[in-house]
Design a protein that fits this description.
Strand order of the largest sheet: 1-2
Radius of gyration: 20 Å
Distance between the termini: 43 Å
Number of strands: 2
Amino acid sequence: MALRHAVLAALLDEELSGYQLAKAFDMGVANFWHALPQQLYAELARLEKEGLVAGREVVQDARPNKRLFRVTDGGLAELERFAAEAAKPSFIRDDLLVKVQAADHLDPGGLIARLAERAAFSEAKAGQFEALLEKMRGDRPEEEFLLHGEQIGPYLTCRRGLDFERANRDWCQEVIAVLRARSGV
């Protein structure tokens, strides 16, 4: 997957400025695709040049003018083409796993500290996903929302992010317990 597809997917439901796109990425898309704001702005420019998104200028009185972007028919066709391709399996690239791989030769105290930091980060991120999911479904039970709710795609990807962060937290806590038991730390 290229950044272009993640940007197109993020623009499907509404027009967004580059700033709004960066915020949307941070809260939703970032759980499966990370991009810096400058990467998003550059990608928007490429997509507009290729006719996959259309931008329009919005004049603002008290602020600088902004550009809003929406997916064009060509952009939707590109997403359809992308969706028809076989999905490549994902791979984990995580420096913490390299550190755990070397656990037998490292100071367990330092490694435990890094694992505790990651567990805390994952716990906080899981809380953000839980709040976002609750906001998306409103007062409906999840089962009802999954069957009849609007914008099910963002909800399902957010659920994946929640599951991912919970699994990270649980794994870190398990590894901490093993390292403590083995080292007496």
